[in-house]
Specification:
alpha/beta; Rossmann fold; 8-stranded mixed sheet; 10 strands; 43% helix; lipid degradation; glycoprotein; endoplasmic reticulum; cell membrane; lipid metabolism
């Protein structure tokens, strides 16, 4: 009995040590965020062990666990017609509000979910519920794209899936089938889905044969570049839940089907050193010293290597492919982009990706709304249902939907 009384405090202390993380005082629901992060870390470590034992790929196991848990929280709706379909070989989930009296056509949102190009699904409750609320709040047809995931496929297949599904939906006869107004369509996505949404918008803007184009793009804490992993937000939030810097770098490596041995070289920007000729022409498009306001730059300094490893770009040329890194697009492409909404969070390694893209679009003459939240963290918008319900999630979701309602 005495041993048990000694063991319990020890276990409690170890648990507290594992869960606790020093977080900025501005973060909303800090202890709940620590618990979420500790759970996710524990699951990830288990999945990596399974991978190490060669029983299965860690991302397959992780996605299975996420989807299994997530399905338990799905909220249905009697006010929407929710169907699954296939658009040009790509699975989608469609949310259709009932027709209102004297209403002929509805507005629409094509939504591309996040998850590091490897996790989550249009069918899991986190995104099902988000799209359901969007459809109900906006009285809009929402098309949620179920693109294929890493490791089943890698870049550029996710991009191709999102592009094919979107172009199929934009056909006049398909829009007519769903009673959608061709002049009121938005392309949107969060995190890796924001990456795909931005890349799809850029591609659509250059397609001369397209008769219907999106009116808006709305990007939620998007991941937009793999050029510099030492922007101020990457430095400031390198250990921040739910997306530490090393995890984001690993997502990029998985997306490009690269080698994890390159992670450290990417982390210190060896792939874009001054002697890497392929990267030189892009450097001016991602100069955060000029693109970020002083409140974001703080006292951080750029990390620019004089000599690096040119073979990284030769091994993974997608690191500089604008279909994967939309922030590196040229000004001519940016000028063609639709009116844009970008949501960023202070406690997020990807904060500066979104802020820099907003500035580059603004410099190109595009109307941009940058919606920044000082107390929020990466991924928060989908966490609105118990037990992963955060005030930050409701706050960001409401702001995002409000902008769509006012502009779409």
């Amino acid at each position: 009995m005495r041993a048990a009384w000694l063991l319990l405090p020890a276990l409690a202390a170890l648990s507290a040590y594992y869960v606790y993380l020093p977080l900025p005082g501005t973060v909303s629901d800090p202890w709940k965020l620590m618990l979420l992060d500790a759970t996710f870390r524990a699951v990830q470590q288990t999945c990596h062990l399974i991978h190490y034992l060669r029983l299965s790929h860690h991302l397959i196991v992780l996605n299975y666990l996420i989807c299994t848990f997530d399905k338990l929280k799905s909220v249905s709706s009697e006010d929407l017609n929710i169907t699954d379909a296939v658009f040009d070989g790509v699975e989608v989930r469609i949310f259709e509000p009932p027709a209102k009296r004297d209403e002929r056509l509805k507005r629409s949102v094509v939504y591309i979910h996040g998850g590091g190009w490897a996790l989550a699904s249009a069918r899991t409750s986190l995104y099902h519920n988000l799209c359901r609320i969007m459809a109900e709040s906006l009285n809009a047809v929402v098309v949620s794209v179920e693109y294929r995931l890493v490791p089943e496929v890698c870049f550029p297949e996710q991009f191709h899936d999102a592009l094919r599904a979107t172009k199929h939906f934009l056909q006049p006869d398909v829009l007519a089938e769903y009673s959608v107004d061709p002049s009121r369509i938005a392309i949107s996505g969060d995190s890796a889905g924001g990456n795909l949404a931005a890349a799809v918008c850029q591609q659509l803007s250059k397609d001369e044969h397209l008769t219907v184009r999106p009116k808006l793009q709305a990007l939620i804490y998007p991941v937009l570049q793999a050029f510099d992993f030492n922007t101020p937000s990457y430095q400031q939030n390198m250990n921040m839940p739910v997306l530490p810097r090393y995890v984001m770098i690993n997502y990029w490596i998985d997306y490009f089907n690269g080698n994890y041995d390159l992670a450290h070289s990417l982390l210190i920007n060896n792939h874009t050193a001054l002697d890497v000729g392929e990267a030189l022409s892009f450097r001016g498009r991602l100069n955060w010293t000029s693109l970020l306001p002083s409140s974001f730059k703080k006292n951080y300094k750029p990390l620019i290597q004089t000599t690096g490893r040119a073979e990284i770009i030769q091994e993974i040329p997608a690191l500089l492919d604008v279909r994967a890194v939309p922030l590196l697009a040229d000004n001519e492409t940016l000028q063609l982009q639709p009116k844009t909404y970008i949501l960023t969070c202070e406690n997020d390694v990807l904060r500066d990706d979104g802020v820099m893209y907003a500035k580059r679009l603004e410099n190109a003459g595009v109307a941009v709304t940058l919606d920044h939240f000082d107390d929020c963290f990466h991924g928060c918008m989908i966490f609105t249902i118990w037990p992963t319900d955060f005030s930050a999630g409701v706050q960001t979701r409401n702001s995002y939907i409000k902008w769509l309602d006012e502009n779409l």
